[in-house]
Records
---
Amino acid sequence: MKREVPLFLTAVIGTFMILSFFVPHQIVSVPAQFLQLTAVIVVACGYLLGGANVLRVNLVAIGRQEPGWLYKLLLVLSLLATVTIGAIEGPGFLDPGRRSRWIYDTLYSPMSATMFGLLAFFIASAAFRAFRVRTIEAMWLAAAALIVMIGRVPIGEALTRFLPVPLQLPVIQEWIMEVPQNAAKRAILMGAALGIMATGLRVILGIERAYLGGED
Amino acid sequence: MTPLQNLGRIDRRWLFLGMGILVLIPLLFPLHLPITPTATSIAFHRAIANVPDGSTVLMSCDYDPGTIPEMVPMTRTALRQLWEKHCKVVITVLWPGGPGLVDRVVAEVAAEYPDKKYGVDWVNLGYKPGNEAVMVLMGQGILTAFPYDYRGNATRSLPIMQRARDYADFPLLVSISAGYPGTKEWVQQVQARFHLPMVAGVTAVSVPEFYPYVQSGQLIGMLSGMAGAAEYEVLRKESGEASRGMDAQSLAHVFVALCIVLGNVVQRDVRRGDGS
């Protein structure tokens, strides 16, 4: 029963949700709405589980004084402080002047932006050390990358403005993006969509059981 | 050891310094490189221009502070264009780290239009967990999915929500998205299912993913990263953050391109040296 009941629920709910896509009648749409609301609640509970898991994993590492345990301690303290302050401030915790807002504006926001900003530096380093052209295919890839990279920014236009229009970098990069890139991307999207449909059917029919965990 | 082989052993901190200088200089001393709007940016601008004046538009701002330089200028310019058409704007955020940022950005733009009132001309519905489930749930009723807005008001009591019950009430969805959940999910779950016309502003790195949707007409227009945001500002005759940032981005792209070329020249020299 431990496996049959989840399999049965998955099959019924999966089929029902597919049905709700095509049948707008209340008999289908009202229960579908209930299921969607339930999904939202389940995802919200997932955040609680995630938080608890972060605490568990890091507290164990801190207790054993594993390498980098001070960073983990900082993480745990930050997590607890943010959650506690937010809970005390209650609704409107991100209103201007609140402590939570201060944490968001002066800590979270700049640190998050900095992490993304650092990418530019590491991309430059990786481009110098790792982007190796060893085959004809890699040469075509590198050529396309260089054209798109320069063609998509204003300097591409400024550098090739004197050339005939079909030879200007922005025009060539647009062709690369719209024709070969688009064709390849569409094929990938279609392949992925077919794969998702096949997996969905396997889950609904009970063939795919990995999501249940444990032994199959 | 040849000079090229020496270059191959360069400390990567020199590369970081080079990148830093090239980004910093144009920010301090702008080069004013020409910005020519592309077809997808023009289509984005035109799609909003074609929205009937005074209608209510859905805007999903699915990003967090990591992508401020690309996403925030798009958001600002789109809000300005919509409000100059006297449109009402219903805003959602499906990223947990985004609501604080989006609320601040919208409030800053709203301050430029003193006649625009919260709850009447715009509302921030805030964050709701559930990703695609929230999108589909909104199709059953916006009030069902968001009984309270970001500020804790009952959405049922807000004047703007009286004319925004479900997707059929919106002439356009503006999706400003930095990843998952975002534009792709809005296309798959909402545009395809509820046939809601849609435009998108996306990060430069994710642009290739959305070209098929532009070509199929599921996305009427698209802004591609900071370049797209700058083109949109040019179309709106604004001088915003994106336009100012494009000089820096141009030089950064040239630097990365040079790194690729130089890295390969050095490697070739090293291999030739090993061979001899």
---
Amino acid sequence: MEIEKVDYSLQEIDLEEGRQIEELIARSQQPIKDPDDWLDSDIRQNIVMSSMAKVINWGRHYSTWPFGCGLACCAMEMVATASSRFDVTRFGMDVFRASPRQADLFIVSGTLTWKMAPAVKRLYDQMAEPKWVIAMGACAISGGTFAHSYSVVPGVNRIIPVDVYVPGCPPRPEALIYGVMMLHKKIDKRRFRQQD
Amino acid sequence: MTKPLIGQEVAKQIGEQVPQSVVESNESWILVKPESVLQVAQFLKNTPGLDFDYLTCLTGTDYLDYLEVVYILTSMKHNHSVVLKSRCNRENPEVPSVVSLWRGADYQEREVYDLLGIRFVGHPNLKRLFLWEGFQGHPLRRDYL
């Protein structure tokens, strides 16, 4: 194979190199400005184009701090859900609070009696908006076995509004976790300006 | 294991100290008149050899013809137990309170009063325990709808 014949000499290559260096020197008489002007421009750098509702709901649904209202045996499953084996922390469903003032999610787990009902209503009223309610177990949903009893509330939705119903007697911890996931979906659908 | 005392033997001792109080007795329990419950209970608690210092359980039952109060007594000292019963009529059920002997009877008598309507005479605070004030009737009675 015949070697292609080049039509420039080494002298010409050196001249081209020298010309490029001269040009670079000519362009580089002033130092380049340090890239720190963004430090002063908060607004320009921090705008994310999205819908307000989407962002707020995203924040809310990962910070539903539950208030465990353990009224009966369902409370054991709720405690198990929060404990190491099932560990709701994995899904951003903690932190269980002992005070309704610090909680967003009211988990009614167990049989609600009429004598207890005013206390539960008061605890719900003490929670700050926005707040959600999960009725856990057959008793909380409808009174369960005791629906026609003289002392049991036939469903906590007689007392407080319920967002998610988790059936079972008692529901397994997986069921409660699934219920909270359903609540996350529900929170995502909220309109920002919606008042309830 | 707690040893259950023979009812007839204890009833014999009761009969000597509190005459005309025992209605019936068998190997399981002793049935006494309601008006002498407090005296019998005092005897059972304070007699050396019996020393029933602990009230295990106090409960009531509705047998349609009458209401029955059951006391299960245990002696921590001798590790033996006995069952005491008393029957009262449905129309005006009254039994003396034993709170003065066993403080543990307080809530249990209130429960029986709440659910069966048996009045414990001498109870320091006889009001409903599980249900609220103003509740109509006593739900563990058989004729409660």
---
Amino acid sequence: MPKKSPQSASARPSAYTPAPDRRFNPGDRVRVKNTYPPGHRRTPWYIRGKPGIIERVCGAFPNPEELAYGFSGEPKRVLYRVRFVMRDVWPDYQGAAHDLIEVEIFEHWLDPA
Amino acid sequence: MSHDHRHPPAHGRDHEAGLPSEHEILSRAMQELLEEKGVITAEQVRRRMEQFDEDFPYRGARVIAHAWADPEFRKRLLADGKAACAEFGIDLEADRLIAVENTAEVHNVVVCTLCSCYPRALLGMPPTWYKSENYRKRVVRDPRGVLKEFGTVLPDQVTVRVHDSNADMRYVVVPMRPRGTEGWSEERLAGLLTRDALVGVTIPGTNQ
């Protein structure tokens, strides 16, 4: 198969956006804030207050909590993929102890743990 | 391509039972205004719906079949789904894609608990069950029970990894390539890859 012509990383459409000023890195232990402010939030209720581990950095994205009300969403917020053990999320979880759930959480919803 | 089959009307109502919903009226009014102002044409809208019906639903199977056939492409797909799709000639537009691979140890399944986020430019429109409250509420709480209802029973030693597609990323599952498919063409492999397998609720096999 012919090799693709070399492209600079920035020229390729990427799933990820840069987030150089982030607070967490993959492997870091975190806890989702256990808070219930009104408004449009992308942090599901079931995951609030739960401990997890950063699985990957998704990048910096316009803040959906601002976008929802017609604002620009700036400054962008860093979005993470956070991994949780099912039994930490659901104390009565019936499946295997090693089962996992991963959720996208914005940085301002996370505390170090 | 043969074009003798019927398309639904541009507004997607293939039955005329009852009055249009409030959302449908809003959508029509919006489209008419945008047409009037010259922002879009009815032809563009029709063309877009045709893509959703006839092109997008088959993209995912072709990408994953290619990943099965080409280990280097598979690596690139897992590293950055959108870039790999672009290289394969598929523009995912606004969708940012994370591809997650099933192995002998891990089985992945995708949900959006907040609404119905789905990689539409890769898989077409989400199925009704994906949007149902039943699926969205239960698959994050009892994934093994939900998978069993789809006929997918996983041994305890396999880790179930549920992905809540709740913000800006979209997900596609790379299933395990079934045994006995060595030497198959990508087109034939793609025939094994149903939408449900790419969401992770079923496991592709050769005896379907």
---
Amino acid sequence: MLLVNQNLPTKRMPLASTDDPDMILFQRVKRKDRQAFEQLFLAYHERLYRFMFRMLQQHEQVDELVDDVMLVVWQKAGDFRGQSKISTWIMGIAHRMTLKTYQKNKKYRLKHDSNYELDRIPDQFEAGPENTISRDKVYEQIQCGLETISADKRSVVELTMQGYSYPEIAKIIDCPVNTVKTRMFHARKALKVFLQDSFSDR
Amino acid sequence: MIDTKHTNPDSHIMELLPWYVNDSLSESEKAEVDAYLVSHPEYLQEIELLRTIQNTTEENIDIPVPNRDRLMQKLDEIEQIDEHSFSQYINQLLAWLFSPRAAWTAIPVALALAVVMLWTPSQTSLNGDFHTLSSGDTTATLTISITTSSTDDASTVIDQMHKLVPAAKIKTKYDNQFVIFLSDKVEPEETIKLLKNLQSLPGVKSAEIVTTR
């Protein structure tokens, strides 16, 4: 099933448009309208939470981080020059903050959990391919695979799977479109390793 | 990066596949991938892999109810901090202004200003520019040069000028040219009005401010 969500980005990457309802809301936020800010928060909460949780896997941390992203939006609203859609700009902020937290978490886990690297090896390598691979198992394997790839590649995977087009991702993560494609290519190659058994049997 | 579209069509299609799956390709790119898949069915497995990844990322996440109150509370805290920093900045500025360091800075600045003011010419030729009297002045004594069209007009013009500005001293320079001195200070608006009146007198060819003091 494809992920089709009206809240998610469109196929093209238009610049900020005055017809965009988010833009109208954002203009009010720029003028420090607290009510508009609340509405913007509600409109973006799920999208931000989903992306951040996929990256960080920690509810409490993500819950706080979504607030932090919105507070940055409030403070930096005046800096927005309309060179992208509002959603792209907000996701760019979310991406940078998530990446920072992701690196911090990783450092913390490596420092405090000596078995962390070992834990990430999927069971399939221990149990052998003859095991029946359930949906949960595939999910687990993909999660393990995502843990092994770099944060940069992972965020490209997550944003792609959330329905962002590659020019939009390029804007969000602030890199050329070709870099987005390359990161996705390598990420997919790495994930394939984790899923090879489930796919080689088909 | 090398353009894979022309160098390696396989890589190019492989690059597009994730966005083919998430349905965010342009129509032409989508058609390109569709056409390629017909001749290369082995790529269907790749698509299946991507769909599996996508499905797992769509897994239900328990997204909590957005906590508006908490956010607004954080916003209040931030704004309080901002206000505090602003008042701190003002306090620091005031403290600096009344410090000996500020005095040492003020002395050379004041000296520089004094030099600039002294060097500004006290007499400015205005050439009829009514709006610029000597810089910063609100009043000024002035000299106006009048030229009449002919010598015959001169006496008539002088009579009219006496009526118009009884306090003025009039000095004849040539037969058709004379100068009016106004020793009392005159407001700029009055000067402009006077000058316009002089210019509108019959027989006056030109009337312009020569100096202000």
